[in-house]
Amino acid sequence: MRNREALRHDWTKEELLAIYNKPILELVYEAASVHRIWHKADEIQLSTLLSVKTGGCPEDCSYCGQAARYHTDINVQALLPTETVLAHAKKAKENGSSRFCMAAAWREVRDNRDFDRIIDMVKGVNELGLEVCCTLGMLTAHQAKRLQEAGLYAYNHNMDTSAEYYEKIISTRQFDNRLNTIQNVRKAGITVCSGGIIGLGESTTDRISMLLTLANMDIHPESVPINALARVKGTPLENNPKVGIWEMVRMIATTRIAMPGSMVRLSAGRLEMTETEQAWCFLAGANSIFTSDRETLLVTPNPSITKDIQMLQNLGLKPMKK
Ligand code: SAM
Ligand code: DTB
Ligand code: SF4
C-alpha cells in the first residue's frame, strides 16, 4: 500500500529500538523490502549543496566548523553574488541534480537586504527547473511565506539529536526552537527536510528518540538527512570516534522503516566510506545523496561529482529526475 494512510505516526520508543537492534541482515532485508514498495529502488536523488554564506556563525553547535567561537581553518565568506549561485545551480542541473540546496551559516533569517538577495536566488534557481531548497537557520512564519512565494520547494532544518541530549551539543538555542521553525515551514506550504547527526557521543536511545520526534510528526518530513559527524579540527567534537558503518546502516534502515514514504539522504560522512559501504546504505533504504562540484559539503570534503556518477554506474543506479 503506497498511500498516506499506511504511514504510522504513533511509533513507540520500544518498537523503534527493537527495529534498530535487529540482526543486521534481517534489518536490511526488511528496510529494503519497504523501500521497494514506496520507491523506485534503482533511483538516487542527487542534491547539490552550496554554501552561500560561510562561517562566522554566532551559534555554538559543537559539531560545526562554521561557529565563530571555535578556531577552525575555514575561510569566512560573505553572501555570494546571485549570479555566482545561479551559475553553480546551472552546472548542478547539467550534472544530473534535481535539487539544489543553498546553505547559510546564520542563527536565523533577518529581514534585511541579504534576505532579499536569497529571495532572488530562490526565484532564479526555481526558474532553472530545479527543486529549490534552503537551510538558513530559524525562520518566522512571515519569512517562510516569503520563501514559499518565491518558489522555495523545501526547507532543511535538522533536529540534529534527541531533545534529551540537545543541551549537551548546543546551548545557544533549544530543541523547541527547531520544532517551531519546522512548524512555520509546514504552515507556509513548503516541504520539510529534517534529520540529524550520529556520532555526537549520543546513546542509541538518543538516536531513537530523535527518530521518534520526526516519525511521529503529523506529516513526516518529506526528506530525512542522516549525517555521520564530519569531525572538524578546532571544534569540541574533533576527537570523537569515527561512526561505524553498521551504526549508519542501522540508522538509515530504521529511518526507512519508520518513514517509508520519505526520501532518506545519506548525507555527511560519505568521503570516509567505501563504495561498498555506501551500497549497504542504499540497500538499507537511502535514496538521496549530496553532491557538489567543489568536492565539499559546506566546509568539509565530499566525493567529487565525477566519482559519484561513477559509483552510481558501478551499482546500476541512476539519478532521479525531478
Ligand atoms: N545554520 C543553519 C542551521 O544550523 O540550521 C543551516 C546550516 S547547518 C550547517 C545544517 C545542518 O548541517 C546542521 O543542522 C547539522 O545537522 C549539519 N551539520 C553541520 N555540521 C556538521 C558536521 N560537522 N557533521 C555532520 N553534520 C553537520
Ligand atoms: C544536512 O543534513 N547535511 C548538510 C545539509 N543538511 C545542509 C550539511 C552537512 C554539513 C557537513 C559538514 C560541513 O561540511 O560543514
Ligand atoms: Fe551556525 Fe548552523 Fe553551524 Fe550551528 S550548524 S554553528 S547554526 S552554521
TrEMBL record:
Pfam families: BATS, Radical_SAM. The keyword Iron applies. [4Fe-4S] cluster binds at C57, C61, C64. Binds 1 [4Fe-4S] cluster. The cluster is coordinated with 3 cysteines and an exchangeable S-adenosyl-L-methionine. Keywords: 2Fe-2S, 4Fe-4S, Biotin biosynthesis, Iron, Iron-sulfur, Metal-binding, S-adenosyl-L-methionine, Transferase. It catalyses: (4R,5S)-dethiobiotin + (sulfur carrier)-SH + 2 reduced [2Fe-2S]-[ferredoxin] + 2 S-adenosyl-L-methionine = (sulfur carrier)-H + biotin + 2 5'-deoxyadenosine + 2 L-methionine + 2 oxidized [2Fe-2S]-[ferredoxin]. Gene3D superfamilies: Aldolase class I. Its cofactor is [4Fe-4S] cluster; [2Fe-2S] cluster. This is Biotin synthase. It comes from Sphingobacterium micropteri.
